[in-house]
Amino acid sequence: MASKHFLSLLDLTGDEFEQLIARAIELKSLQKKHILHQPLQGKMLAMVFDKSSTRTRVSFETGMTQLGGNSMFLSPRDTQLGRGEPIEDTARVLSRMVDVVVIRTDKHRTVETFAEYSSVPVINALTDRFHPCQLLADIQTYQEHRGSIVGKRVAWVGDGNNVCHSWMNAAKLLGFQLAIATPKGYEPDNDMVSATKQHIEMTTDPKAAVKDADIVVTDTWASMGQEQEKSQREQAFAGYQVTTALMQLAKPDALFMHCLPAYRGYEVSADVIDGPQSVVWDEAENRLHAQKALLEFLLLAK
Ligand code: CP
Ligand code: NVA
Q1: Cβ of 134 less than 6 Å from ligand 1
Q2: Which residues, in sequence order, are bridge partners of residue 51?
Q3: Which partner from 66, 146, 177, 252 sits 20 to 30 angstroms from 76, CA to CA?
Q4: Which residues contact 111 (CB under 8 A, 6 or more apart)?
Q5: CA-closest residue to ligand 2 atom 6
Q6: 9-130+284-300 homologous superfamily
Q7: What is the helix, strand, coil percentage profile of the chain, to 5?
Q8: For ligand 1, what atom is nearest to the CA of residue 126?
Q9: Quick one: which H or E segment has residue 256?
Q10: Atom 3 of ligand 1 has which residue's CA nearest to it?
Q11: Whole-prediction pTM
Q12: Tens digit of pLDDT for each residue in 19-41?
């Protein structure tokens, strides 16, 4: 049987997504009680990272260890990938030795190619198109604080980027409304807009998006690889900062979310991210628990 991969949230059904979140919450509780749960003994995870990472790397390495397995971090600087060995060959070789591969790279097509040639599950740890692991943790976080996200209203304020695309997929899979406020020219990709149109609203007005929202979410204005556009983007996104005044237009019990790393004074003000409505540290912690549920799902589910 072909391996299951997790390249985008759409590799899951809505039911599987909900079951993963429920399992993540169970695994979190086991971990808090210091109950050993090691179903992945003898399994090896390879982590191929072309880009920087704090949360994703540490959560996968820690998660794999907690589940009884091992992991190895592979950077292009130290592997033959960096010297031009084809991704197809690397996929065939690694998947003969390890049980699961996590990849963070630029082009989504690279992860798809890797998965085509891999005989073991491949997990997308961020590409230019998607960041599905982040959404597992974010939905878990909302559920822990406020219950089911079904039917709620989420406001995305900022860049129509990889994380925004994954929120769009989550809205479609789980059934919630996503209001997206971006400057002109920074909208999500057209194909994503058409594929999720019943679940999204598009505007250039952050206030319109945030009105009555249950969650307000943002991300950096300049993603990894866009460093040279930083000053141009700072101009384009002026007026898109999530501030206390903007949060006041959302529901009184609205949560503020951010995948991190965050840049205070740019996409979010310090008083919002460090304030009482912010759940960003829970989101970061839940990367660990949600990805443990994902590893179990990909490696153990029949
Ligand atoms: N949110 C996130 O993926 O963080 P890292 O880039 O630190 O992994
Ligand atoms: N959109 C950001 C997310 C970082 C976790 C980036 O791609 O750099």
Answers
A1: yes
A2: none
A3: 66
A4: 7, 103, 105, 122, 124, 127
A5: 223
A6: Aspartate/ornithine carbamoyltransferase (3.40.50.1370)
A7: 45, 15, 40
A8: 3
A9: strand 255-258
A10: 56
A11: 0.98
A12: 999 999 999 999 999 999 999 99
